Amino acid sequence: MSAVAVEGIWKYYGDYPALRNIGFSVQEGQCLALLGRNGAGKTTLLRIMAGLLRPQRGSIRIFDRDARHPQTRASIGVIGHGIGVYDELSAFENLLLFGRLYGLNDPSSAAMEWLRRTSLDNVAGSLVREFSRGMRQRLAVARAFLHNPSLLLLDEPFTSLDDRAIALLQSLMRDALARGATVIMSTHQLREAMELATHAALLGRGKLIFHGERPAAMLQDPTWLYRAYGES
Amino acid sequence: MLYFRQVWTVAGKDLRSELRTKESLNAAISFAIVILVLFSFAMDPTADQIREISGGLLWLVFAFAGALILNRSFARELGNDCLDALVSSPLTGSALFLGKALGNFILLTIVELVSLPIFGVLYNIEWARRPRALAAILLLTTWGVTVIGTMFSALTVNLRLRELMLPTLIYPMMIPALMSAMRLTTLLIAGEPIPADDEIWVRLLIGFDIIFTALAVGLVEVVLVG
Question: Which residues in chain A have Cβ-Cβ distances shorter than 8 Å to B20?
Fold first, then answer.
């Protein structure tokens, strides 16, 4: 079954078409690297998949359901540009909040487990506003993985992460892929992404230029796809 | 059950955040007290005049002070893109709205409960002669004000001039509820029962609450997802 099926998506900001007739599918267990220059439409496409935006035309099915269906959203983990956690709550309270919203059976245990996995258990009761940038990023990762999502939508997940957080995120993504989860990530940090990507899609000015298995040449030269399709 | 747990989780989160930062509660209570004090100095009304204007004065104070709370309702979700995290979770738009409305309702009620005794002292008036009826009118009107304010807080959250836009949009919408509340509160503070002729205001208030709650719950998903 397709984890994500995108059909004829058009999205306009005013008169400007940010996405033009995008269509592709991602099978369960795949890791898709969504590539493209700034303004290519990667974030818009991910936000539509996450149910944060509606396209003007076309449809998106996630696990054969509408993207805004609560059951669909319960199976998705999202990391966007912001960390999506509250400064005035503690790390534990933040994860407990999202655990409850996702309807976890034991949100308290899940929160503690993910604080431990992200090495934040020693500051579980501290307010997020007291955290360093790296700690905040790790908490955002914990929030996205808290409910063991079947689909991870990650928008520039490696941006502004320190080495420790990058290693943690890559390890968690590997674990997720190993249990059969699907990952779609947009990124400019190609070297980190190519270690995990099984497939790649290249967007340019809102159009899908390439979609397929990650070319082997990208392991040696991550920018190969950009040059091959004149997007360098 | 999950739906109601989600509603309460959102309300609890908002209340916890507000009680920690007190950014809008302190401002709203201070504003309400300042208006009451200034008005008592400016007008120096007699006891009879106070009874005549009590409903209008109180609801103007509550409505203006309430806007300070309502303005922050969705704006507090903008930091760290928390609104995206909520909207991409299984939380439905209506559960998010009702959770936020419930949190705002409790905060507004706190402002009213602090303001009423101060009103009584400053104006030397016994305001609780019909406490149960007054409480019912306060709660009904507060819910109506909260529903309108929370909905428009969601609608204006991404506007640069939202602090200006929210009051501009919500006060005209609140007119029916405020008119009812002013008339009924004036009667109850004077210690009079609600006469049969004025029961229409109670029905208007109940109808207002039901209609706008239903509209907001039905439309909020469209407002939240662009």
Answer: 88
Cβ pairs A/B, distance under 8 A? 87
Are A90 and A128 within 8 A, CB to CB?
A: yes
Q: How many domains does chain B have?
A: 1
Among B65, B158, B167, smallest CA distance to B112 is for: B65
Domain boundaries, chain A: 1-70+183-232
Nearest CB to B81: which of A68, A81, A101? A81
User: Nearest CA of chain B to the CA of A201: how many Å?
Assistant: 23
The b-or-e profile of A36-63 (16+ CB within 10 A means b, else e) is beeebbbbbbbbbbbbbbebeebebbbb
Please indicate whether, in this complex, the C-beta atoms of A84 and B6 are within 8 angstroms of each other: no
Domain of residue B132 covers 2-224
Q: How far apart are CA A29 and CA A221, in angstroms?
A: 24
Put the strands of the sheet holding A2-13 in their side by side order.
A16-27, A2-13, A57-62, A65-66
CB B210 within 8 A of CB B84: no
- Sequential pLDDT tens for chain A (232 residues): 799 999 999 999 999 999 999 999 999 999 999 999 888 999 999 999 999 999 999 999 999 999 889 999 999 999 998 999 999 999 999 999 999 999 999 999 999 999 999 999 999 999 999 999 889 999 999 999 999 999 999 999 888 788 888 888 999 999 999 999 999 999 888 887 888 899 999 999 899 999 989 888 887 787 887 787 776 6
| A130 touching B (Cβ < 8 Å) | no
Please tell me the class of the A1-70+183-232 domain. Answer: alpha beta
Element (H, E) at A110: helix A107-117
